[in-house]
Amino acid sequence: MLRVGVLVSGGGTNLQAILDAIDKGTVTNARVEAVISNNANAFALERAKKHGIAAECVSPRDFPDREAFHEALLSRVDSYHLDLLVLAGFLVKIPEAMIAGYRGRIINIHPSLIPSFCGVGYYGLKVHEAALARGVKVTGATVHFVDEGMDSGPIILQKAVEVKAGDTPEILQRRVMEEAEWKILPQAIHMIANNLLQE
Question: Are strands 138-145 and 106-110 parallel, antiparallel or unpaired?
Fold first, then answer.
């Protein structure tokens, strides 16, 4: 059984998609053991508690400097003995010690087709604003392994989503979540849990 930890900063819609997929049996051999947020008010923590999952906040605000925060975050993650870390809208750069300690075991969902609209500064609505400003006809989402770069690790899955006339960043964000993110993130976890990834 793959022990999964989900790191999230906000509402936790991707977390909910994972939990729903596990409940439905479309994700097998995996269980979410812990949800950790940098934001004490993240609704994701409530979603976790309703599911009987350990939920806690580790906020940079509670530490004197970034190094102390990183040490605390890594310590909390380590305490759950996780097999896979899922960054599901986690808006904090994770420490290099975590990347090194969990190499090949951290995945992220990004709301574009990498390498488009990714890297430093591209998160949340900013990604969709950039896609609309560029005039692309197709966008989507990407699940990838995390390395030391920003959105630069090996790609696991991508799903394309049509950009429609009249789209606002908010409308496009919702469509990308519904048609891509909420499908491919659980699928990637299922593939990892069942050794279905092609080398």
Answer: antiparallel
Q: Assess whether 110 carries a catalytic annotation.
A: yes
β-sheet bridge partners, residue 109: 143
Q: At what angle do helices 13-24 and 182-193 cross, to 10 degrees?
A: 50
The answer to whether the CB of 57 falls within 8 A of the CB of 45 is yes
Mean pLDDT, the chain, integer? 95
| pLDDT of residue 183 exceeding 90 | yes
User: Per the residue annotation, which of 70, 110, 128, 190 is the catalytic one?
Assistant: 110
Sort 34 into a burial class: Cβ within 10 Å, 0-12 / 13-18 / 19+.
buried
Q: With the CA atoms of 30, 31, 37 and 41 taken in that order, what torsion angle do they form, in degrees rounded to the nearest 10?
A: 130
- Tell me the pLDDT tens digit for each residue of 77-103: 999 999 999 999 998 889 999 999 999
**Cis previous bond, 115, omega within 30:** yes
- Convert 73-95 to b/e letters by CB count within 10 Å (16 or more is b): bbebbeebebbbbbbbbbebebb
